User: Which sequence fits this backbone?
């Protein structure tokens, strides 16, 4: 059994981890925690960290003892500099909480790249973990909607850079901009994205610690994540009817199945495909054909098959990227945003001259 | 003479000695020393000892004892000086001792008569002997009380006459009459009252009381007896004589004879004869005075059988010693009241509700309050199974398990809630 640490930083990381905990209960209702037990194959310890206490209170499926509040007003206000300072002040508290949970084989740290607490805490936390432990640590990073504003884009750009510098063993990208195709109102869109990420993470955790017909394990996952530019994304498809496994694999690798916009056949470096379902649906020829097709493009593909009687086929694909054109676009926009913010600040500074006009009235009183 | 004096001294010493010796004895002893002439006698009660002959030279004397004047002596004795003879008298004994004989116009004998255990009431020398003695008898006073009317009305007057007659064989002396007060009557007039003391010869008749009594209340009354105390000619007291005791029946005047009654009619109604277990039954006690006298001290006891439970009722109903009761000081003529109360059917079965009523009233005739009581019993009330009785008849685990499960679920939910609370 694997010992897995999952940390969710900031509002986004908290909610994704809460969604993972909820889905681990198996039930779809919010009352599942009262009558069900979490169905993790491994020993999974989940910890959510936030400076905004209201964000922690909103969580429904994460135990109270697993919610760590770092007191600083009601958040750091999307200011990564403040966030880093707060983390430094509370580093011992956070690390002690993790240390108290025991030994781990792998860790996942989930965060948004654009917010304040998550984007500032996560690189520093990974750095601390890497200094203290030798298990692999992967970051699951959610990129912002492009229209969310210059601050978020700026944060995302610097966060990703810090993340790469932190020593993380891999960064799995999920892009809100790409996932907004889900549609619906803003709340249901966010919840849908969180549930989508949670479903993939749970599948991945299940695959890393399951008895398989064809085995993929943590070592294979590490090998995949070590390839490419240290960036990765996840594709997933879950058939809700009698869909051929071949189609399911194709859909998992298509844009609709991925968390991040990429052409896997052009940009992927290594891949791991795990297929789960009733063996009657799992045609080995179809699976081999599709895997071979992918392998011919990306090089090496790890393949795992989990037999689950009566279930329709589900496919999870972990793909590391050699390069990410979408990320380049993001950085291009981010640079513009940084420029925009700098110019704005300069303009604000120049407007301070207006104080001179007011200073002419010093010592004078109105006469009527 | 000297000899006589010595003899006398000897006798005296003997008397003193005997007195000393017999000081502690219970028997009575009397001594009579007499000189009796020939032809005379000495009487002790109704006995006479005649001295019939005295022989001076032979120092002898002959004595004859007669009883009640009979001519035939019961004893005939000749004794010498210092000799004696004894004979029984009544319950005692007489001893006669010849002390001396003397001569004279008529010879005489000196005797010492010792009387033992005899209650002497008549003693002394009888001149001429027993034929001239006076003998005592037994007077019998018969008292007769008569009334002129023995069935009268209240306030009527009767005349009471008491007559006395000596039907004995001796004169009654020191006769004293008395007549006690009569209860239930008052003395209206006293016409004659001879209470004595007086004497009544043998056969004599005397009216001693005549008085008039007035009846004060109705009833049958016995007049107390008149009495007479008396003695015989020898002053012997006799037991008190009593008269007869006439019975007088006194009836009340017409106007007082109408008796009144308080008649309390009692009934108990219930609103339902067939009820389910745990349902309530409302019973109503109806009480009505149909008599012509008011009732007082009215007690109503409501008897609730086992299986039914008293719940509540009219404010007049009090629970005393576990029994619902109603008390009323008075209940007027033609008065009518209702007392509703509620009972709960707690057990299956067939029941009746009993109401007991006790009361008193003044009937206008008798001084004491009249008491009466009655009771009413409802028709059968059938208590059947209730709506949820089937549930209650299930084994305990049927109820316990769900409760335990609910508690366990509740505890689990509470635990989980605390676990996930922040």
Assistant:
């Amino acid at each position: 059994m694997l010992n897995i640490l999952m940390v969710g930083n900031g509002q986004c990381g908290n909610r994704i981890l809460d969604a993972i905990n909820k889905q681990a209960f198996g039930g779809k209702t919010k009352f599942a925690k009262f009558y069900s037990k979490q169905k993790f194959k491994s020993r999974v310890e989940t910890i959510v960290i936030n400076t905004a206490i209201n964000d922690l209170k909103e969580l429904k499926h994460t135990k109270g003892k697993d919610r760590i509040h770092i007191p600083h007003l009601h958040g750091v206000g999307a200011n990564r500099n403040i966030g880093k300072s707060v983390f430094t002040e509370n580093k011992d508290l956070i690390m002690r909480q993790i240390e108290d949970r025991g030994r781990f084989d792998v860790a996942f740290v989930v965060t948004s790249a654009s917010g304040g607490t998550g984007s500032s805490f996560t690189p520093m936390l990974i750095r601390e973990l890497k200094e203290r432990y030798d298990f692999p640590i992967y970051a699951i990073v959610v990129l912002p909607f492009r229209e969310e504003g210059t601050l978020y884009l700026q944060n995302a750009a610097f966060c990703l850079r810090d993340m790469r510098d932190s020593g993380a063993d891999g960064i799995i990208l999920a892009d809100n901009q790409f996932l907004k195709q889900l549609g619906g109102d803003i709340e249901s869109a966010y919840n849908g994205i969180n549930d989508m990420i949670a479903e993939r993470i749970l599948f991945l955790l299940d695959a890393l610690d399951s008895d398989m017909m064809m085995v993929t394990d943590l070592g294979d996952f590490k090998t995949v994540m070590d390839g490419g530019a240290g960036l990765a994304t996840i594709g997933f498809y879950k058939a809700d009817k009698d869909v051929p496994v071949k189609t399911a694999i194709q859909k998992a690798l298509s844009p609709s199945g991925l968390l991040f916009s990429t052409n896997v056949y052009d940009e992927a470096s290594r891949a791991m495909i795990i297929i789960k379902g009733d063996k009657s649906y799992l045609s080995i020829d179809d699976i081999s054909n599709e895997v071979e097709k992918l392998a011919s493009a990306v090089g090496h593909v790890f393949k795992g098959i989990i037999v689950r009687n009566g279930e329709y086929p589900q496919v999870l694909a972990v793909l590391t990227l050699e390069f990410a054109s979408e990320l380049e676009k993001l950085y291009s926009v981010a640079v513009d945003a940084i420029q925009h913010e700098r110019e704005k600040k300069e303009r604000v500074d120049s407007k301070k001259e207006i104080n001179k006009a007011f200073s002419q009235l010093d010592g004078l009183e109105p006469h009527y | 003479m000297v000899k006589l004096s010595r003899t006398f001294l000897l006798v005296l010493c003997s008397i003193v000695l005997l007195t000393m010796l017999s000081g502690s004895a219970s028997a009575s002893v009397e001594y009579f020393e007499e000189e009796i002439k020939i032809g005379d006698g000495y009487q002790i009660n109704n006995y006479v000892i005649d001295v019939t002959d005295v022989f001076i030279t032979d120092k002898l004397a002959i004595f004859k004892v007669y009883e009640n004047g009979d001519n035939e002596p019961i004893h005939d004795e000749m004794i010498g000086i210092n000799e004696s003879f004894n004979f029984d008298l009544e319950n005692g004994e007489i001893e006669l001792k010849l002390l001396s004989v003397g001569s004279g116009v008529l010879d005489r004998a000196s005797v010492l008569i010792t009387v033992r255990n005899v209650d002497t009431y008549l003693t002394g020398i009888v001149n001429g002997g027993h034929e001239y003695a006076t003998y005592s008898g037994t007077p019998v006073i018969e008292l007769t009380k008569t009334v002129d009317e023995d069935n009268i009305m209240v306030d009527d007057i009767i005349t009471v006459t008491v007559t006395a007659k000596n039907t004995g064989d001796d004169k009654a002396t020191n006769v004293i009459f008395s007549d006690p007060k009569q209860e239930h009557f008052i003395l209206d007039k006293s016409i004659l009252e001879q209470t004595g003391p007086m004497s009544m010869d043998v056969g004599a008749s005397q009216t001693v009381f005549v008085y008039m009594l007035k009846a004060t209340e109705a009833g049958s009354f016995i007049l107390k007896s008149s009495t007479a105390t008396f003695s015989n000619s020898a002053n012997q007291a006799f037991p008190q004589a009593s008269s007869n005791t006439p019975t007088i029946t006194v009836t009340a005047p017409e106007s007082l004879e109408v008796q009144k009654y308080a008649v309390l009619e009692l009934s108990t109604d219930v609103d339902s004869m067939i009820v389910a277990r745990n349902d309530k039954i409302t019973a109503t006690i109806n009480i009505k005075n149909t008599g012509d006298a008011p009732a007082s001290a009215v007690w109503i006891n409501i008897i609730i059988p086992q299986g039914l439970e008293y719940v509540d009722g009219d404010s007049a109903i009090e629970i005393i010693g576990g029994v619902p009761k109603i008390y009323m000081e008075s209940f007027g003529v033609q008065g009518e009241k209702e007392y509703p109360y509620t009972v709960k059917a707690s057990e299956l079965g067939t029941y009746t509700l009993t109401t007991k009523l006790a009361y008193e009233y003044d009937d206008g005739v008798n001084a004491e309050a009249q008491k009466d009581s009655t009771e009413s019993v409802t028709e059968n009330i059938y208590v059947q199974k209730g709506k949820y009785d089937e549930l209650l008849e299930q084994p305990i685990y049927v109820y316990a398990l769900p409760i335990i499960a609910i508690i366990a679920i509740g505890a689990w939910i509470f635990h989980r809630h605390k676990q996930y609370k922040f």
About this structure: Residues 1-209 of chain A form a domain with the Rossmann fold fold (CATH 3.40.50.1440). The longest strand of chain A covers residues 268-277. The interface with chain B takes residues 33-34, 56-57, 59-65, 67 of chain A (CB under 8 Å). Chain A has 14 helices and ten strands.
